[in-house]
Every structure is written in structure tokens, then in C-alpha cells.
Design a protein that fits this description.
Structural class: alpha+beta
Strand content: 15-25%
CATH architecture of one domain: Ribbon
Oligomer: single chain
Helix content: 10-25%
CATH class of one domain: Mainly Beta
Distance between the termini: 56 Å
Number of helices: 2
Largest sheet: 2 strands, antiparallel
């Protein structure tokens, strides 16, 4: 399957065939997530994207990779509750 990329002002568009949309069960006006993974554009239904399967989300090990500093936790005063927070 091939498609042509078009340009409207500063944005790019692509026409997705209705057969493909039916196959992946995405309807017109439905919200999707679009992201890049290893040079590929991924389009995923919003209701199927979770923290566990989000390829753009990094693990704690990835976030702190190469961090060699000493860490000293500090106490932060966030102020008094303003709503229904549990303290």
C-alpha cells in the first residue's frame, strides 16, 4: 500500500485508505497518538496507548543513565492543602 504526502501551510497530510482505517478500527474524528520510533512514524489509537506500551516513555534506568552525582534528598514544603488532598 502506498500513499502520497501533501502539504497544507506548515503541516503535512496523508490520506489513509478506508480499508486500512476499518482494519485498525479507527474512525473519523477519533484521537490518535503519533510518534517516531527508530525513524518510523507510528499512529496508535488513544484508547490503546498505555504507559506500559508507550515507546516514547523512558524507564527510570534510561532517565538516569550516565548520572554519577551524589543524591541528597531534601524536604519540600508544598504548603497547606487547598482541596481534597490527603496528608
Amino acid at each position: 500500500m502506498t500513499a502520497t504526502i501533501s502539504r497544507i501551510n506548515e503541516n503535512y497530510t496523508i490520506a489513509l485508505p478506508s480499508t486500512l482505517m476499518k482494519l485498525v478500527k479507527i474512525k473519523e474524528s477519533e484521537t490518535v497518538h503519533i510518534f517516531e520510533v527508530s525513524g518510523k512514524i507510528i499512529i496508535q489509537k488513544s484508547d490503546t496507548l498505555t504507559v506500559a506500551n508507550d515507546p516514547t516513555r523512558k524507564t527510570i534506568d534510561e532517565l538516569f543513565e550516565g548520572y554519577n552525582e551524589d543524591y541528597e534528598p531534601i524536604q519540600i514544603d508544598w504548603g497547606a492543602p487547598v482541596g481534597k488532598e490527603l496528608w
